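Students often ask why we bother encoding 3D structure as a string. The short answer is that it lets us treat folding as translation between two languages. Here is a chain of 393 residues written in the first language.
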Amino acid sequence: MTEKALIIGGGIAGAVTAMALHKAGIEAEIFEAYPTGADDVGAFLVVFTNGLEALRVIDAHGPVVDHSFPARRVALIGDDGQLRGERPISGIDDGSALGPRTLRRATLYRVLHDEAARRGIPVRHGKRLVGAETVSGPHGARVVASFADGSTAEGDVLIGADGLHSATRTLIDPAAPRPRYTGQNTVCGYAHGIDTPLAPETYTMIAGKRAFLGCTRAPDGDVWWFANVPGDELTGDGVADRTPADWRSRIAALFADDDTPAAAIVRATGDTVIASNSYDITTTPTWHNDTMVILGDAAHAAAPNAAQGASMAIEDGVVLGRALRDHADPRAAFTAFEELRRDRVEKVVATSAGLAGRVGTPEGARAREAAAARAERGGAGTSDWLTGYRIAW
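And here it is in the second language, the structure alphabet:
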């Protein structure tokens, strides 16, 4: 029986998994490589209905709702500025479920960490995993984790919630696939003092001739936006060499020939401009061994186009916590977890990759417009399977 879990990674998946295990009566300890858990400071994300309902299962949705703002609908505008379609963002709009919420990534990390701490779950910072081995004990196999600072920790299981470049994934399978660069950069920012009319509680998606931009207006009037643009993979120097002004100029130029507000929104942005590479992992053949398992981006990273990364990580954490509660043998729990999750998450990765592959092309713009038109005619089934997912504890 699992009594203690070592969780590698203090991001979304790590914090949620720890709280799910706490609810299941299993001790958990989080080990975070960085001094804080808030990487990607400045970037924002959406937690969709499926993610929020999974948080509700472990009574952790309240702080997220309190520190975010809603978006219940999505509208698509073509490069001529005309509305192509509008629908509920989650495929349902009956008020029975928690609607999607937008917040900064750092805020989500902070509120989840605060909630985990309130429940007495320890978080150890500055603990970069460098190795792990399974050892025999009087009550069965145990796992010992080794960290770069020379310390170790021992538990019944080790859970790799350590993201895209997971060390745990490689420890489980040295031949595990590496993340694939999708050919696009994701850039986001915050526009101030712009009076472009945007429908309230709505994500306005602008399909330009050469790039794609999504935006929503925050309660303080700022417009939060992201753009998916084709480009070379950014190295560390490549990111540092581009100033916020460089990014504003580059992104605005991609929309300059369109009759949409996209270029004006980008030009009205201050110096908080965040750029990153878009990666995915289409499949990871091996998720676990006898004492170690991976989840979230460590197991199944999706390109950001479906905006489901956070929600998939949340779902994973809750399902894994339930599996470890219900199966005395860790390997049986890991097998059950994988059986419940693999098909769903790989479908999400494939769906997001399909959108990513045509960003910045006329074909991609037409495909997005066609999808919006189908949704407007009532064909919201894709959103239903994605955001209508629920977990019974």
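Translate back mentally: The chain has one domain: 4-179+281-387. Keep this in mind for the problem set.
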